[in-house]
Every structure is written in structure tokens, then in C-alpha cells.
Fold:
Amino acid sequence: MSTATTSNLTEEFHERRTPLQRLQGVLHKYPYLSPLIVLVVAVVIFYLLNDRFLLPQNISFVTQQTVVVGTLAIAQTLIILTAGIDLSIGAATTLAQMAMANLAVYTTASNVLPIAGQNPYVAIFIGILVGVLTGVINGFLIVRLSLPPFIVTLGTLSVFTALTLILFKARTIQKPEMPEVMQWLGNTFQIGEFQLLYGVVMMLILYAIFGYILKNTAWGLHVYAVGDDPNAAELSGISTKRVIFSVYVVAGLIVGIAAWLTIGRVGSASPNPDPLLNLDTITAVVIGGTSLFGGRGTILGTLIGALIITVVQNGLSLAGLDQAYRVLAIGILVIIAVATDQWIRKVKA
Amino acid sequence: MINRLTRGRSFTAVAVAGVAAITLAACSSGSSDEAAEPAADEAAVVEEEAPAEDGEAAASGAAVTLITKDSTNPFFVAMQEGAKETAAAVGVDLVIGSGKEEGDDAGQIELIENAIAQGQDGILITPMSVNVNDAIKKARDAGLYVIALDTPTDPPDVVDITFATDNCLAGQAIGEWTAGKLNGEKAVIAELVIFNDRVVSVDYCRANGFLEGMGIEVPTLEDMTSPAATGSYTTGAGGDYEIVCLEATGANEAGGRTGMETCLSKNPDINVVYTINEPTAFGAAEALKAAGKTIGQDVFIVSVDGGLAGVEAVKAGDIQATSQQYPLRMAALGVEAINTIAGGGAAPENTSANGQFFDTGVTLCTDDPMDTVTAAPQESAQYCIDNAWG
Structure:
């Protein structure tokens, strides 16, 4: 009896909804829908501005240019889902990348490490471990010392940057010195007219894996639960500290892989972290519809968000506008994305 | 719901705290101007102790700060090496610093202010942009001898003297080479520069010097967008040209690759690639290879720098011609000059063609010399490898 009443009420409620409210409801249910609309609109606009935009070659370039930010954005998504944030992600990637390159390449200028000149496979493995270690450090400080992620990673951002400069004498390992294996992810193969980077395949595999894990495993559900309401999660028997720590460690693993990808994409290893890398990963996550307050978002949205960043940069450049406009456009997109998120969160579920 | 609000608020609070911390740090460096006087006294005390530690080597005991754009570009690393070696040899107390990256004016200004505060004798600086001019003037007012290394200030008389490569001439040499190599063929040009939304002298001098070397009219040297997009070049056999793109790369490999990709999207038939330096050229070469181009046949890459990896790439055929410059010499001569002046000796004088700076020389490195090149002597890649820095 009471059930019937409720469903009647719900129906009435549905009938009274305006189209805008209905849109709000749909966007709430599918968080990746709004970034997808933005991506499609952007692609259409850029195609109209310059029809070379949709040539297979340019689309190949866009995917290649997404690879580093796209991969790191997976790590950033996991962290932001727990209502955390990682400002150190770019510096950590540079540290892991320089560890990798310096272990593999022996040069008189950078022989600070007595173990330099390793087999490149060993170097890649140790470099990825360095990435994991950065995650362990962040996770430890956040969970064991109960410090806010923003402050911890603001600190480790400087620490990792300094360590890179101290340990590796601030020297760029240039392409001619770099072993072929380390550059492997930067090679391309042909599918029809499209050139796909092995690194892009690696990135897509990571998206598939983490998309599956977040949706279908207990750990994935715990990540959402911890981000949505840590007290409720704790009460329902989830060890929130353990989940958060594990998220930073997994993020570190992704950082390690991204370090290898960066070497492949660029061909060299420079101790100068891309100053926009941290913010680009956060931007990708936010534009991708993941809430900065945790608990809501999808990994697919992040992939779309990362693509939007590259598409906007590439598209505006093809349209003949200089750098400053690209930066402007990304800034506006972030604000729109956060505003949209706030609006959607007001939906009456 | 309550929980969510609390968390939202704590996030905001933390964010505000972070921003406040950054702002405070910025303010404190800004106010070091006022702090300069007392700090200078302290530094003087420290300086008196210095010769005792260094023994006889520190006869004059001059104190010099070397400020580069960053500390990772092999060019600046070579500069630092050159300065260190000379400083050790002549007994100069050397401080080395740099901006965090291309475009970090604030970092350089801070270092200049520190040098004033420490009461040093001179500064060697690779100025980031006109934004450091005021700080340099302050240093000179405080009695420091300031030498610009590699990049002249704008206007040049902001510093006492400039020790530099003639970047316009370096650009001109690769432009002349390119025109000779094309021998009448149409030039479809990609320009990979540092910035396309900021005016930096090394940037426009090399890029527009390159175009002038090809015999393309450059209406305004300072404006890289001023040359016509299409027209004809006159050097050598002469012919038509088309400038496809002017892409900002940040002068590194990653930017070089992305920039080249964008240019190829605009026009896949590019056959001449001008790059601001060799790391950019490496990135561009990656993009060209990935697009199925054969470098040295379908497309020629020219650059400026002459770092070891760069001239090795000339030998290997990944770069066709590059203008080699001599950063080690610049820094070494700079340290010596300030030491001489601090000891009461004479200041150096300008030697360049236009009489505006002390020219430290440039060589065009190529294994395919062209008669059209007059701006610089041509040498083989092997010669350049033997004389390379980095």
C-alpha cells in the first residue's frame, strides 16, 4: 500500500519536472555526458575553423599528445574520487623518469649514481618502483600523519623537484644517448590512415583496467564510498585509511608507467617538469565530470576530459591562434565544468 | 549532507591556506629590496672571511653571481661549468642560480636582488626578458658590474656589456645554407620558436635572421609575424616560399614534437624546418619520422646551438645544419672580466660587427657546405663535435 503511494508520488513528481530539471537528472546519472557534449561541440567548431582538423594525421597527433596527461589523469581521478588531490604528480613523474634514464645511461656528467649503466629493462623497472615510492610517501604522510592531501602534495611537489635536481645533477639525457627499449612506447604503428602510438595503446589498456576495477571490484566501490562519506564508509566496515593509502600507492604505480611513456613520447629525459602537468591532470579530471569533493565521477569522463584539453590546444593552434588563447580557453572550460558540477549536485535524487 | 559541507569547507580552507602561503612567499621576495641595505652589511662581513678560507688563490676575492635561464638546458649547464672552472682558477667566489624554467622572470629578479644584498662585485646573467631590466638597473646603481651572457637585454645598454653569440648572424647562416640547399626549389617552411605570444630577443633574432639569410624580407626584426606568409626568397638560385606555421615550443623536445605535429597538420608538404635549438630539432625529427618523412631528403632541419648531442645529430643526418655557439667561452670570459674590474683593471670593449656587444663567435656545422653561406665560417660535423659543449 505504502509502496504504491510512493510510486504515485514519484510519477507526479516526474511529470512536474521542467526540461532543464530532466537534463539535470540525466547529467547526474551519466557524469561523462556533459564532457562528451563539450568534446563533440569542440570538434565540430574546430573542423569548421580548419577542415584539416579531422584529417587522420591530425587525429593521430591529438591522441599522441594526450598520452602523458591522459595516463596521469587516471591516477589523479583515483585520488580526487577519495576527495584528495595530488599536486606533486608532475614532479613525481619527472623524478621517476630521470631515475629511469639515468640508470640506463652512463655519462660522465651524471655519474652521481654508482649503479648507472644498467640494462634498460632493469632501469625501467626501478624507475617504476621510484614512482610507486612517491605514492607511498604521499600516502604515508596523508594517512599516518593525518595531513591534508593539498598541503602534503604541495610539499612533496618541491621535495620531488629538488631530489631530481640533486640526484641527477640537473642534466637532460638526450635522445641519442637513450636506449631504444626506453623509447619503445614512442613508436607508432599504422591502422589504415591512422598512426597509433604504442603509448596510446598502453594508456587505453590502463583506462580499461581501472574502469573495470572501479566499477566491478570491492576496492573500486570502497574508493567511491570513502570519497562520498568517510564516516559512513567507516561505519559500514571499510578501513578508510587503508583504502586511501592504497589509492596513493596505485597512483604512484601509474606515475611510474607515465614516466616511461614520457620518455617514449619525448625521446629524451629532462629534469624540468612540465610546469602545467599537475594542473593539466586536475583539469582533465574536473572537465571530465569528476567532483573535486570526491565520491562522484567516472574514469571514462577523465579520458574525455584529457582529450578535450588536447583538442582545444591543437584546434586553436590550427585555427591560427597563439598560446595565450589556448591557456584562456582551458581556464574558461575549468570554471564551466566546476559550475556544471555544482549545479548537477543540486539534483534531487 | 552535513558531512559533505564540512568537507567542502575544509577543502576550501586548505586551498586558501595554500594560496596564502604562496602569496606570502612572493611578497617576501618582493620586499627584499628594502632589506638590501642591512643584508649588504652582513654580506660584507662574510666576504672578509672568504679570502682566508681560499688562501692565496683568492688574491682579488671578487664575488660573482651567474644567473642562467634554467639549470637543465645543456647550454646553461655548459655555461655554469665554464664559470666554475674559471672561478676556481682565478679565485673568484662564484654563486650560481637560475630561473625555474623559460619565462620565470621572478626567479631571476630574486637572484639579482640576492647578489645586491650580498654586496657582490658583478653579475653574469642570461636575461629572461625585459622584465628583469629594472632589477639589473638596481644592481648597477648598487655598483655591481653586470654582463649579459648569450642574450642581450632590450635595450642593450641596460647592462654594462654583453658577451654573446650574434644570434641574428647565427640565424642568417642557416638561412643562407637552406637557400643554397634548396637551389631554386619552393621552400615550405615550419618555424619552431620558443614563444609565439611573447617578444624574446634570442627568439626573433634567430628566426627572423634565418628568414633574412634566405633572402626573405623581414619588415620588423622584433616581430616574428611580420614577414609575409608567401612570397619569394632571393638568396642563391632564389624561389618561392610559404611560411606554414610559427609554433611555440618552449625550446624543448616535447614542445618540438607537438609543434611539428601541429605544423604537419596544417601542411604535410613542409620541406624546411627552422628550430630555435637542437632539443627542439630532436622533437621535430621524431614527429617527422613518425609521419613517414625522410630527414635530409624530403625535409631539411636547421637549428642553432651546437651542443654535443646536436652536432652528433648533424653527423648522423638528423639535422642538416646548425650554427654552433660557445657558452663555455662566454661564461669564462665573463668571470675573468669581472675579476679584472674588481681588481682595478680595465673593462672589456665591444667587438661585434654592429659594435653593440662582445662577439664570442659562431660556426656553421654541416657536412654539406654551401657557397651561399657568408655569415659564418663552415666546418664539418666532426670539427664541431671536437669543439662542442654539453
Remarks:
- Chain B touches chain A through 46 residues (CB under 8 Å).
- The mean pLDDT of chain B is 84.
- The longest strand of chain B covers residues 239-248.
- The longest helix of chain B spans residues 2-30.
